[in-house]
Amino acid sequence: MSINFSLEGKVALVTGASYGIGFAIASGMAKAGATIVFNDIKQELVDKGIAAYKEAGINAHGYVCDVTDEDGVNELVAKITSEVGPIDILVNNAGIIKRIPMTEMSAKDFRQVIDVDLNAPFIVSKAVIPSMIERGHGKIINICSMMSELGRETVSAYAAAKGGLKMLTRNICSEYGQYNIQCNGIGPGYIETPQTAPLRERQADGSRHPFDSFICAKTPANRWLKPEELAGPAVFLASEASDAVNGHILYVDGGILAYIGKQPE
Ligand code: NAP
Ligand code: GCO
Question: 186: domain range?
C-alpha cells in the first residue's frame, strides 16, 4: 500500500503568504509539488513575496487582494482559475490581531479582527468550494490558534474569531464532506513571526520580554516554534494521505495544550 503525500499537479492558494506562517506553509507545499498562488493586500508585499519565493527556488503566482472584499475575492479566484488553474488546496492563513483590553476596545476594532480572521475564511472558502464540488475533490485548511481553545487578556476579538474559525472548519466538513472535500484546521502554538514579534522583543534593560519567558514555560520544549515547523502538518492535510481526516483541528503547539506549565524556580 503506498501513502500519497505528494501535491504534484495541485494548485494551492495560500492567503496572506508574502511572509510568516503562510510563506512557510506555501514553501513546504511547493516542495511537495504544488503550484503556489498567494495574495497580499499591497503590491509591494506581493512583489517582495514573489522575490522571496524565487530565492527559495519557487515560481509562485502573486496577486493583490484583500480577503475581506467578497467581490475582490471572487475576481481573484476567477483570475487564478484562468491564469494558473482551478484551486485544489486553499489555506486560509491571512489574519490580524489587535491586543487591546476588551473594555477599551472599540466595536470597530473588534469587527475588523472578526472580518479578517473569520468572515474572510468564509468568503474565500465560499468562492472555491463550487469548483471543488465540480471536480470531485478539494482541501481546505484554516489556520486556527491556541485561542481556538484558550483565552487570555487583550485578545477577545482574536479568540472569538479563532474559536469561530474552528467551528466554521467543522461546518464546512459537515456540509461538503459528501463531495470529497476535506476541511481541517491547523492550530499553531506560539510561532516566531512578525505577528508575535512584540511579545518577544528585548526590554529596555536587555532582559527578556515577560511574555517570552511565560510562553517558553508553557511549552514542554521550552522554546518558541518556527514557521517552518508547520509545513509538514500542512502538507499532510493538503495531501491524499489525509483524505479520511475531516473537521479536525491539528494543534502544532509543541505540547502547550497538554501541559500545565513549568513550575517557577
Ligand atoms: P503575520 O506575520 O502578521 O502575517 C499575516 C499575513 O496576512 C500578512 O502577509 C498580511 O499582509 C496578511 N493579511 C492580513 N490581513 C489581510 C487581508 N485583509 N487580506 C489579505 N492579506 C492579509 O502573521 P503570522 O504570524 O504569519 O500568522 C498567519 C496566520 O497564523 C494568522 O491567521 C494568525 O492568526 C495565525 N497564527 C499565528 C500564530 C503565531 O504565533 N504567529 C499562532 C497561531 C495562529 P500585510 O502584511 O499586508 O498586512
Ligand atoms: C497572542 C499571540 C497568539 C498567537 C497565536 C497563538 O497575543 O497571544 O499573538 O494569539 O498569535 O494565535 O496560537
Answer: 11-191+225-258
